[in-house]
Amino acid sequence: MAWTRRTLGAALFSFGLLMGTGAADLSLLGVRAEAASMKELRIGYQKTGLPVIARQQQVIEKALAPEGVSVRWVEFSAGPPLVEALNAGSIDLGWTGDAPPIFGQAAGAAITYVAALPSNGAGEAVFVKPDSAIKSVAELKGHKIGVGKGTSAHNLLVAALEKAGVDFKDITPVYLSPPDAAAAFASDKIEAWAVWDPFFAVAETRYKVRVLATTDKTLDVKTYFLANRGFAAEHPQEIVTTLGALKQAAGWADSHRDKVAEALHEVTGVPLEAQTLAANRTQFGIEPITPAIIESQQATADRFFRLGLIPKKITVSEAVWTPPAGN
């Protein structure tokens, strides 16, 4: 697949948030249809997680069919380009980690949080090859670490270093998309890599990596289902229906653990061995955005601002969607 770069406007470009994404993304450019004539819901997803299960089970398609609405699924390599597409109105909904909406909000992106999902947990890590001299996070000081700027793995790396007493400025972050980072890790152009499943799982199966830190042992965070702000204002009921379908998919995944890896493999094409590893440590679920979740996400945003990784202080609660009454 050819990887391209696009902009989220001058603000995002200047802060280097964007990473490579599929050439197919270019076909999404254009103005979103008017609310009254909505015929298609466009959902951004990545290579793992609940949205992939929902796509494989076609639960959203079935839920929206009575309204005459079809669903188009659009794959992204990571959260930042997905947030870019949401801002541009090229997709309507999408799933990312905790960091992308923070970077997006700081740059003025037209996005809103509509639901929370479990964190990447044990399926997101900072790791090195087994023959590396680096044995701990503290020993990353002075080394090159591949990570996607503005991704959940970026937050993991920052927090893990902080916990180990290492200043972020004492390492050399190499900002790469997961496919580019995979190539750099393979050729030893980076010494460590911070990334999520299935990229982490693929690296584990290929290299038998040494894990230095994981999100579940470092952070208390969530991942998020996001919407374009204008879409959320115009189509609240479609969002409610979609969230209900995602909850149904989460229930299926929890009661069919033996079939989850095959479902992920079927949709993404990622090797079954890696998706099995990823599936076995994935938590499935979806919940409303609560004050406690907002507080946790605000702490992450404040950390990024303190380190100078976002250009201004933000208030997360200002970007949280209010569901229709009774939902």
Automatic annotation (TrEMBL):
For this entry, the protein name equals: Putative aliphatic sulfonates-binding protein
What SMART domains would the database entry show? PBPb
Which Pfam family, giving just one, matches this sequence?
A: NMT1
MF terms from GO for this chain are: ATPase-coupled transmembrane transporter activity
Keywords on record: Signal, Transport
Tell me yes or no: is Magnesium among this UniProt entry's keywords. no
* Subcellular location as annotated: Periplasm
GO cellular component terms given for this protein: membrane; periplasmic space
Q: Which NCBIfam families match?
A: SsuA_fam (TIGR01728)
Write down the InterPro entries for this protein, in alphabetical order: ABC_SsuA_sub-bd, Solute-binding_3/MltF_N, SsuA/THI5
SUPFAM superfamilies attached here? Periplasmic binding protein-like II
Q: Which species is this record about?
A: Xaviernesmea rhizosphaerae
Keyword Transport annotated: yes
The record's family statement is:
Belongs to the bacterial solute-binding protein SsuA/TauA family.
- Reported function: Part of a binding-protein-dependent transport system for aliphatic sulfonates. Putative binding protein.
Q: Where is the Solute-binding protein family 3/N-terminal domain?
A: 40-256
